[in-house]
Write the structure tokens for this entry.
Amino acid sequence: MMLSSKLTRASNDSQIVLSWLTNKQSIHTQRQYSCTIEQFLQFTGKDLSQIMIEDIQDYLRSLKLRNQKLSTVKVKLMIIKSLFSYCVKTGYLPLNPAAMVDNPKVNDNISQKLLTVDDIKNLMSHTTGIRDKLLIKVMFGLGLRVSETINLQWTNFRVDGEMVNLTIIGKGNRQRTVLVIPSLWQELQVLRKKGIDYLFTASEHNIPLRRNTAHYMLKKVAKKAGLNENLSCHWLRHSHATEAIKGGCDLSLLQQSLGHSSITTTQKYLCLRLNEGSGNYINF
């Protein structure tokens, strides 16, 4: 008896897309991926089995003509590649046309998205409440993504004497543990409310703060503080990494704290210290 090479019961594109999305743990990721694939399929007007390399290339070209950022184009292509890879692995499709499409080269301008410790203090001094101040402090102090920060619950913390460990479920459903300094842990106690599981909520209800609310708050505070209005929550994570390296943190520990799957991703922060060079540390 010949065994089937298919690993899925999906018989149409909607079913295989749903199966693929189910593997994504984050609701935000599911929405983003679903929206991108819907836009892509509408553009091509084809079923997945009919899509050729040129269809994907045409779609990417259309994004560039609409002045989409290269980083956005790269993310959309990554999502398309992910879907086609899943389709081939499950046996839904025999070939992966997206595998033959090169990723656009993006100039990573992280060096323009860095804040100093004084900038962070300036931001916090312009917040209107303790919640927003601590939200900024946690994202910068622990290097967390905004999605990780707004979903923090008190049960994620484990207190062992003077040590406080925070368990994070990050990107790709990867778990990591981050050390929380005692002073920050003490400051966070003012956020505790009876019957509320989350640290950062939008109201008295047991509902976490929305990503858009956090981003809007930060931009508003940045404007009041006289800082770059394009500032986003991720700038705080970038700044955490560069300041940690500046303070002597080794790459492997930083990789562990940030939850990077590859140390190559962490290494990009080695070259982001503006107005400094190794020659500054040599006396002769």
